[in-house]
Give the backbone structure.
Amino acid sequence: MSASGSDMTNAVLKPITPQLVKMESALREKQLSQDISKLLGKPSPYAIDSGDVLSIVVWDHPELSNSATTATGMQAGTGADASTSATTAPPAGFIVDHQGEIQFPYAGNVKVSGLTQEQARNLLTTKLSKFLRQPRVTLRVQSYRSKRVYVDGEVRNPGLQAINDIPMSLMEALNRAGGVMPTGDQSQIVINRAGTNYDINLPQLVKRGVNPGSIMLADGDVVRIRSRDESKVFVSGEVVSPRALTMHNGRLTLNEALGESGGVNPLSGDGSQIYVIRKNGTDQVVYQLDGRSTGALAMAEGFELSPKDVVYVAATPLANWNRTISLILPSALSSAVGVLNPLK
């Protein structure tokens, strides 16, 4: 154990056995099966809310529509005055105020928050029917401004995404953001809703038969796609090519890590002392694999690594002895040369 460093002497040592591989696999599966039922649902019609701008047209009554507001805004001025007017003028249409109401001629204050476009149109038609004969009303959301989600991390176009009449699923939000970049880790997607984080592993969801399109986002959700660089594994010691490896969508086995590093160095590596150093909270756990034992290859393939794991291959006693001698001999040789050739 001394070949693996002094830090490992204080850690818990666990030999990698078929039983441990099975137990670790069950524990990992339990961690991946986080309850995301609160995120799943079916698309529902868009509900109007405060801040939305409605376009309302009453047929055969142009004086009641918002076209007059539009015309006024267009004739506000020319040149610099027109530019200033365009940026300061309110949007054409009927804005839903903070109480969820709009003010409409004859109908007065109409509560539309929480209603679909069809429900709001029917309500306005009923109110206008008291003053107009068989009014025909067209109502639609002209500008969606009440509900938003934020997409951050490894996407091409991070930023705010407005929820509109197209249901805002997780896949829709990622698509509007330009898709996940090659540097993004699709197994490390976090959705924050009302202070609670939900970890989403897209490949794992598909494997379990869950359609990612059924994850519906709500107003105020924050979606973050983590970088693959946050899930690196470090391979050091007596391997052919020590390096930092990125996990493949959150998965990398011990066998794959050794293979991508060229394997155990045949000249200096001790195949019986292959260690995986893992920090678990404030504790440190060290797993040891005897690569010369029967079934070692199968155990290495079944043992999945975690982000920030360190794979370390110790040197053979002979390699350690050769290195010690190489450090001692040059100093001894220098002393001998100094005796034979004293300074004049």
